[in-house]
Amino acid sequence: QVQLAESGGGLAQAGESLELSCAASGSIFSINVMGWYRQNPGKERELVATISSAGRRSYADSVKGRFNIVRDNAKVTVVLQMDALKMEDTAVYYCYAVQELAYGRKVDWWGQGTQVTVSP
Fold it and tell me: Which of 53, 79, 92, 99 is a Cys-bridge partner for 113, taking CB atoms 3.0 to 4.6 Å apart?
């Protein structure tokens, strides 16, 4: 079992910055991709940013140039730095991790979610 503990988030005004952190614990071996997704009520969960253990990053087009994802492989933590926030960034943000096991099996792990609200 892998537990993902999120922190950060909260309320910000448009144009401001927030930072989300996620720390993995438990059986944290072979965790490759970590990242963040977000979701609003009635909508599908969407990818925000991911980073592999090798440092390869991927971002949603809507956040490119504003968000930055960094990772500490030793501590198995991932941080999402969010700058120039927009109202449309308002959502519940979920930490995400992919654990690669034997025989090609992959397991997805999710955090409980943290609310980010951006006001005008």
Answer: 92
- Tell me whether strands 77-82 and 91-100 are parallel, antiparallel or unpaired: unpaired
pLDDT digits (tens, 9 = 90+) for 19-36: 999 999 999 889 999 999
Q: What is the DSSP string of 42-109?
A: TS--EEEEEE-TT--EEE-GGGTTTEEEEEETTTTEEEEEE-S--GGG-EEEEEEEEEE-GGG-EEEE
**What are the beta bridge partners of residue 39?**
92
Distances in Å between the Cα of 25 and the Cα atoms of 9, 17, 47, 104, 118 are 20, 27, 22, 22, 30
